[in-house]
Amino acid sequence: MEQYNHIINALSAKFASSYDINILNPLYITDFYDVDNTLILAKSSELYFGENLNVVRPDQILFVPGGRSTNIASGAKYGPIKTKD
Predict the structure, then answer these.
(1) What does the DSSP 8-state code read for residue 3?
(2) Element (H, E) at 44
(3) pTM for the whole thing?
């Protein structure tokens, strides 16, 4: 555990917040954007990202760098279109 703390301190990373959201219906988010870096853990279903909708398998993490927009889909590649406002 101490080794992990050294790595985190060396990277100057800080934990801001976390959310646990269960998505019940398929959704498609166009132009997901955040000023901070974002990590998304796909727990039990596949997650898709980018223009080509690349796949993130369950138990893998998607990293979205701050300041870049991307498309994100969950449940089905082409679910109902929702926009993050």
Answers:
(1) H
(2) none
(3) 0.69
